[in-house]
Design goal:
By secondary structure, this protein is an all-alpha fold. The chain contains four helices and no strands.
Length: 136
């Protein structure tokens, strides 16, 4: 299960790679430190929710599917709250936001949107498999 700290660290690692690709060079230690500082500031205000585990629809019980559905609903709500928090951080920066601040915030925002969508799709797929299994 991915917790908010793991998600955050994974996002930062991906951001470094993207930065390096865009610059066609490895990020400098100063750039990495700046990005870490920005990310730590964001994380002190906004915590990404812990993602639920989506069961295998082919082997899951009805109780497991119902539990996963509830956990997913809670996660989606918390994820939307997290996105709102990120928007508030960005609003607080206003026009004074640096390019790195905006880039880190956008990276975290887009990563959360993708994860929310991906988990919802994964659950829907597992649910279809579960229903097909029960129909047999």
């Amino acid at each position: 299960m991915i917790n908010s700290k793991s998600f955050f660290i994974a996002c930062l690692q991906c951001f470094y790679v993207c930065l390096a690709i865009a610059q066609e060079a490895e990020p400098t230690a100063e750039q990495e430190a700046n990005i870490r500082d920005i990310a730590a500031g964001i994380q002190s205000s906004c915590m990404a929710p812990t993602a639920p585990v989506i069961p295998d629809g082919g082997t899951a019980t009805q109780v497991e599917m119902v539990t996963a559905q509830g956990a997913l609903k809670t996660y989606l709500e918390a994820g939307n709250d997290y996105l709102g928090c990120l928007e508030e951080v960005e609003s607080g920066w206003g026009n004074a936001a640096t390019v790195n601040q905006v880039a880190v915030l956008n990276f975290l925002y887009n990563g959360m949107v993708e994860d929310l969508q991906g988990r919802a799709e994964a659950f829907n797929t597992a649910l279809k498999v579960f229903r097909t299994k029960d129909a047999e």
